[in-house]
Amino acid sequence: MSFLPHLPRTGLELEGRRLPVDVALASTFLARLRGLMLSDPIAPACGLLIVPCNSIHTLGIRGALEAVFLSKKMQVLKISSPLKPWRSLSACSGAWAVLEWRVGEAANFGLREGSQLKQVSAGGPPLKSLFP
Fold it and tell me: Which end of the chain is more exposed for a tag (fewer CB within 10 A), N or C?
């Protein structure tokens, strides 16, 4: 796990199917504040789940990304168009979390607005769900 190794991990399921993505979890103030700033561009099958969060920017980001905005029930509310590094903002009223990953990953995994995700263990100790 070279992608943001200092952060805990969580897994995601879509319709009972585990998504093959390494998801780092940014749930503390400092982790949310830093996000992907000054990190290497996001690799395929890697993502950052920011909880709680309803808006993001790409200042300090080194590559384009896609944002998936989730409700408190982990329903996909919005999938952003590609966000360019250093100059994009995206927000979603009512969102509880944002999943950032490479452009096109939502389509690769079959996600669309209205899809229902589920947080699952990443293989290590179980994490307390951050979704009420």
Answer: C
